[in-house]
Write a structure and sequence with these properties.
The complex is a heterodimer. By secondary structure, chain A is mostly helical. Helix content of chain A is about 75%, strand content about 0%. Chain A has nine helices and no strands. About 15% of the residues of chain B have low confidence. The chains are: A mainly alpha, B alpha+beta.
Chain lengths: ~180, ~450
C-alpha cells in the first residue's frame, strides 16, 4: 500500500495517541532488553536505537493495532542487529536462549503495568526495616556494599536479606494477581 | 536438569540475586543460562525478577527526586543521583518528543528562517570542542575569544569543554561540560538547555521580558540574578545565589519562586512537591567515593585477592573522550577519569589556600598527567578552570600504585582564561578530571581534597 492510498502523510507529526503509547511502552522495552542483553548500559543503548526507529516509523503504525507487539518486534530486531555488531561475548546469552526469551517476553510483560501497581501495594506491607533496606538499595546511588559498610554487616548478609525481601515481594504480587483473577 | 524442581528454583533465585547485585561470576552466568534454557518456568521467573527489580529502581528513583536531600549542614555528603538507566532511557524517549517540540524548525535558533543575522553576544572564552551553528544552519568553525555570535545552537562535546557568552546588555552565560542547547534573542533572551550545566549572571531584564531558560523539565524565568542551572532529560536543578527566579515544572505546570541561597529541582515526574530549600554549606575536605557515578571512568572491581562478595570498586580506569578538535573537525582524544559535581549542582568542596589535591594512581608508562579543576565562585558564578601537569613515573610506584599530592598553588588558570582575574582560593570545586594524552591505562584508586592545618 502506498502512502497516498494509506492516507498517511510522511511529513505528519506523531499523533497524541502514538506519543501516549510510545511513552507507555518504554519501561517494558527496557526490562525486555535488560533481560536479554544482561547489561543495563547495552539495554539503554539498544533502547535508544529502537526508539529512534519507532519514532521514525510512526507513520507505519495504525492506531488500534497492537502497538506493544509492534514496538517489541522493532526492539527484537535491534537486539539482533546489536548482537551482530558486538559479536559473541561471554557476557551475552546464546542465540537459542535469546530467541526463547524474545518469543516469551512480550506475553509475560502483558501484566507488566499491573505488576507495578501490585508492587506499590506490596511494598506497604513490608516491615519498616525491610522498606528501609529496599529504599537504600534502590535509591539513586544505593549499593549493597555501601549499605554493608553503613550497617556494619557483610555485603553477603545484606544481599541475602534483599533476596528474601524480593522473594516475598514476588509472592505478594502473585497473590494479588490471583485475588484479582489475573493468574 | 529437572524442570519445575524447587531446588533448581532456589538455585535460580540465588543466581538472579547475584546477577542483580553485580556479583555473578562466570560459572554462575553459565549455570543461569543452562537453567533458563532448560526450563520455561525459570524463564518466566527470570523475566518477572528483572521486571520486579526495574520496578523497584523506578519506584525509588522517583521518590528520591524529593527535595529533602537538600538539607543544609549535612554531616555526610548526599549521594549524587545515579539514575536508573531505564528511567533515564524512558525519559530520553519522552524527551525525543519534547526535544522535537522544543527545537522544532520554526524556532529561529535552530535553523528556521530569519531575515538577517544579528549579532547578540560576544564569546568571552571557549575551551574544548564546541560546535556552534548560527541561525539558518550556518556552522561557525574555529570560534575563538572575542568572536561575535548570533542566535544559534551549540553542542559541547567534551567533559572539559566550557564557553562564556557576554550578551550586549552585560548578561554572562557560562556553559560547562557536555552541554547542548540553543540561544535565541528574539522576544527576550531565551536559552534552551537540553542537557548540561550553566551559570548565569543576569543583568536587570525588562519586567515584561525576563530571560528564560527552558530545559526538558522546567521553565526558568529570570529578571536579574546569579543562578546555576544543571539539566538532564530527567531533572533540572536550579540554584539561586542572588535575587530570585521563577521555576515552572513542565510536567504539571506547578511553579514556585526560588529566593536567594535556595535550590529547587524540577523532575520529569510529579510525585514530589516542587519546593525551594536552603543551599547547603560545603565542607573543606572531600573524599571521592569511587562507587558513585562521577562521570568518566570505568569501574574496576578486580582486586588482587578478591573476596567472594567483593563488589566495591577498587579503581576507576581512564576512558577515552574527545578533548579538542582541529580546524577540520578532527578530534584529539584524551584518556581520563572525572569527578563531576552532578547532577544537582552541589559543588564537591570549598577550596582554601592550603587545600591539597591528593590521589592514588596507577600508570603503565611514564607520562605527563593533567589534573584539571573546574571551579565556581562561592556565590555560584563561574570561577575559572585550572590545571596542573605532573610527570608520573611507574618506577616510583609501590605495587603499581603511587600517591600524588598537589598543593593548590601548583595549579594555573588554563590558557584561554588567562588574565581574567580567576583565582582558585576561596572558590568551590565542581569538577576534577585526571587525564593523559596517550592511553597509559591510568587508574585512580583514591581521591581527596584536604585543607591542610
Amino acid at each position: 500500500m502506498n502512502e497516498e492510498n494509506s492516507g498517511k502523510n510522511p511529513e505528519a507529526e506523531p499523533c497524541a495517541e502514538f506519543v501516549r503509547l510510545f511513552t507507555g511502552v518504554q519501561r517494558k522495552l527496557y526490562s525486555f532488553l535488560r533481560a536479554i542483553l544482561r547489561n543495563p548500559t547495552e539495554a539503554e543503548d539498544v533502547l535508544q536505537e529502537a526508539n529512534l526507529v519507532i519514532w521514525q516509523k510512526f507513520s507505519d503504525f495504525e492506531v488500534g493495532t497492537n502497538f506493544n507487539a509492534w514496538a517489541f518486534s522493532i526492539a527484537r530486531w535491534q537486539i539482533m542487529s546489536h548482537r551482530k555488531k558486538q559479536g559473541r561475548s561471554k557476557l551475552h546469552f546464546g542465540d537459542e536462549l535469546v530467541e526463547r526469551l524474545a518469543d516469551e517476553a512480550p506475553q509475560e510483560f502483558e501484566s507488566f503495568d499491573a505488576r507495578k501497581s501490585a508492587l506499590s501495594e506490596c511494598l506497604k506491607k513490608l516491615k519498616p526495616e525491610q522498606r528501609q533496606l529496599v529504599a537504600q538499595r534502590y535509591e539513586p546511588g544505593g549499593s549493597v556494599n555501601e549499605m554493608a559498610e553503613e550497617q556494619g554487616r557483610s555485603a553477603k548478609a545484606v544481599s541475602e536479606a534483599l533476596r528474601r525481601i524480593r522473594k516475598n515481594l514476588g509472592i505478594c504480587i502473585e497473590n494479588n494477581f490471583r485475588r484479582e483473577g489475573f493468574a | 536438569m529437572k524442570k519445575n524442581d524447587p531446588t533448581t528454583h532456589t538455585e535460580l533465585e540465588h543466581l538472579l540475586t547475584a546477577q542483580e547485585d553485580g556479583i555473578l561470576d562466570e560459572a554462575g552466568k553459565e549455570r543461569l543460562e543452562e537453567i533458563l534454557l532448560a526450563d520455561p518456568e525459570a524463564r518466566n521467573l527470570y523475566l518477572r525478577h528483572i521486571a520486579l527489580c526495574d520496578h523497584l529502581a523506578w519506584e525509588y528513583t522517583e521518590n528520591a527526586s524529593e527535595p529533602t536531600e537538600f538539607r543544609p549542614r549535612e554531616s555526610k555528603p548526599s549521594s549524587p543521583a545515579i539514575l536508573h538507566p531505564a528511567w533515564t532511557m524512558a525519559a530520553a524517549a519522552i524527551i525525543i518528543g519534547a526535544f522535537l517540540f522544543l527545537f522544532k524548525n520554526d524556532d529561529p535558533s535552530l535553523g528556521g528562517s530569519l531575515p538577517e543575522t544579528e549579532m547578540v553576544a560576544t564569546l568571552e572564552f571557549i575551551e574544548g570542542p564546541v560546535a556552534w551553528m548560527d541561525v539558518g544552519g550556518i556552522p561557525r568553525n574555529e570560534l575563538s575569544s572575542g568572536d561575535r555570535l548570533a542566535d544559534g545552537s551549540f553542542i559541547m562535546e567534551s567533559p572539559s569543554s566550557s564557553m562564556q557568552l557576554r550578551f550586549d546588555d552585560g548578561t554572562l552565560l557560562t556553559l560547562a561540560g557536555e552541554s547542548e542547547g540553543a540561544v535565541s534573542s528574539k522576544d527576550g533572551k531565551l536559552l534552551r538547555l537540553r542537557k548540561g550545566s550553566l551559570v548565569a549572571k543576569v543583568t536587570k531584564q525588562p519586567k515584561d521580558s525576563p530571560l528564560r531558560i527552558i530545559t526538558p523539565t522546567a521553565n526558568v524565568e529570570v529578571l536579574g540574578t546569579i543562578l546555576n542551572v544543571s539539566s538532564s532529560a530527567l531533572q533540572t536543578s536550579v540554584r539561586v545565589e542572588e535575587g530570585s527566579v521563577r521555576v515552572k515544572r513542565l510536567a504539571d505546570g506547578q511553579s514556585i519562586e526560588v529566593p536567594a541561597s535556595h535550590v529547587t529541582q524540577a523532575t520529569l515526574g510529579t510525585s514530589s512537591e516542587l519546593a525551594a530549600t536552603p543551599i547547603w554549606e560545603l565542607p573543606t575536605n572531600w573524599n571521592g567515593d569511587l562507587n558513585r557515578n562521577w562521570g568518566l571512568g570505568r569501574g574496576n572491581y578486580k582486586a588482587r585477592e578478591r573476596p567472594v562478595f567483593q563488589i566495591k570498586l577498587v579503581s576507576l580506569e581512564a576512558e577515552e573522550y574527545v578533548a579538542s578538535r582541529d580546524a577540520k573537525g578532527v578530534p584529539t582524544s584524551r584518556y581520563g577519569v572525572s569527578f563531576n559535581a552532578r547532577p544537582k549542582n552541589k559543588p564537591l568542596v570549598e577550596l582554601t589556600p592550603s587545600s591539597v589535591i591528593r590521589f592514588r594512581c596507577r600508570l603503565q608508562k611514564r607520562e605527563y598527567v593533567n589534573v584539571f579543576l573546574g571551579t565556581n565562585r562561592p556565590n555560584g558564578a563561574f570561577g575559572g578552570n585550572f590545571e596542573c601537569n605532573v610527570v608520573i613515573d611507574p618506577a616510583n610506584a609501590e605495587n603499581g600504585w603511587q600517591e600524588i599530592n598537589i598543593p593548590l598553588d601548583k595549579f594555573k588558570v588554563i590558557k584561554s582564561m588567562a588574565n581574567r582575574g580567576y583565582a582558585l582560593e576561596k572558590n568551590v570545586l565542581s569538577k576534577i578530571i585526571i587525564s593523559t594524552h596517550k592511553d597509559r591505562q591510568l587508574g585512580i584508586g583514591e581521591i581527596s581534597v584536604t585543607a591542610q592545618p
